[in-house]
Amino acid sequence: MKVSSPGAAVEKVAGDGIKAWNSGGSHLLARRVMQLIMVLVGSAVLWMFLYSSASPFGSPTLLSHYFMDYSAKAEYDPKLKSVLRNASMKDNTVIITTLNDAWAEPGSIFDLFLESFRLGNQTKKFLKHLVVITWDQKAHTRCLALHKHCYHLETKGDNFTGEAFFMTADYLNMMWRRIEFLGSVLDMGYNFVFTDTDIMWLRDPFKRFYKDADFQIACDFFNGDSYNLDNYPNGGFNYVKSSSRTIRFYKFWFNSRSAYPKLHDQDVLNKIKKSAFISNMNLKIRFLSLIILAAFVSMQRTSTRSQQCMSIVVLV
Ligand SMILES: *[C@@H]1O[C@H](CO)[C@@H](O)[C@H](O)[C@H]1NC(C)=O
Ligand SMILES: *[C@@H]1O[C@H](CO)[C@@H](O)[C@H](O)[C@H]1NC(C)=O
Ligand SMILES: *[C@@H]1O[C@H](CO)[C@@H](O)[C@H](O)[C@H]1NC(C)=O
């Protein structure tokens, strides 16, 4: 299946559902969205399968020896400061995603991602607050061609250009570098919404975020209680407010990598979420009731990889 433009690809994903955002009445829209959900539910099973290797809920672990000197203030790249300042909302919030060459090619996920802001219901305004963190020069060039706020994150020794397959060493390094980076964004005084590039922004998530939480995160499995730490977090979408608590929490999370060298950030979070360190600091964690659905979209970016996994978040 040849998909030539991002617009066409969106239609491939959503059928007529997306068109209804522009033209239909609200009943028609609701029905179309329901149809879309039904179609995608099947694919979600496949997506869950991808995550089935994830460890079961771990027991709470006390990792007090991962305390560090939290008082030391790092020096940050003036370029990064400038990018964040330019993209920031009035309340110091930015929207952040990360991009490497594998997802940046024309007609690829990144185009769809940007398109979703334009197609969504009152989501276009968020584009001017979106900061795209690029892992390599090609992705950076592509970002600059399409978007205003791009920042190339230097990664010493690592090469994140190619597609980093789930749980390979490159994948793990990239995920952990991301956590470290997001921690520094908090340290610089910015709140952020982190969004994976394969999440389509069709609605305003700020209307659904909890007002009083420090750290709110999407789930792979939501058990109905947003406070319940047994929910299984999904690192692809979260909203974090900058405070001394969240800054310490991100350092703790990042430093916990060494205790679980084979796990990625999301599974480590799942291990440490009940730790005494976190409960003692009174970090307010909430889980978002998102239905995350996946669809395999035929993108035909290259001859070798014709399919990419895409998730669509529906706020319920
Ligand atoms: C867009 O969102 C507003 C409120 O958030 C809602 O009233 C309106 O019906 C939505 N429009 C569509 C086309 O769904
Ligand atoms: C931020 O905005 C200012 C003013 O528009 C501009 O001069 C500067 O180059 C921007 N910074 C970056 C990193 O794009
Ligand atoms: C990074 O890896 C890509 C292939 O994935 C390769 O083409 C490129 O030359 C590498 N870059 C560096 C700096 O090693």
From TrEMBL:
<feature type="domain" description="Nucleotide-diphospho-sugar transferase">
    <location>
        <begin position="126"/>
        <end position="304"/>
    </location>
</feature>
<protein>
    <recommendedName>
        <fullName>Nucleotide-diphospho-sugar transferase domain-containing protein</fullName>
    </recommendedName>
</protein>
<dbReference type="InterPro" id="IPR044821">
    <property type="entry name" value="At1g28695/At4g15970-like"/>
</dbReference>
<keyword id="KW-0812">Transmembrane</keyword>
<dbReference type="InterPro" id="IPR005069">
    <property type="entry name" value="Nucl-diP-sugar_transferase"/>
</dbReference>
<keyword id="KW-0472">Membrane</keyword>
<dbReference type="Pfam" id="PF03407">
    <property type="entry name" value="Nucleotid_trans"/>
</dbReference>
<feature type="transmembrane region" description="Helical">
    <location>
        <begin position="33"/>
        <end position="51"/>
    </location>
</feature>
<keyword id="KW-1133">Transmembrane helix</keyword>
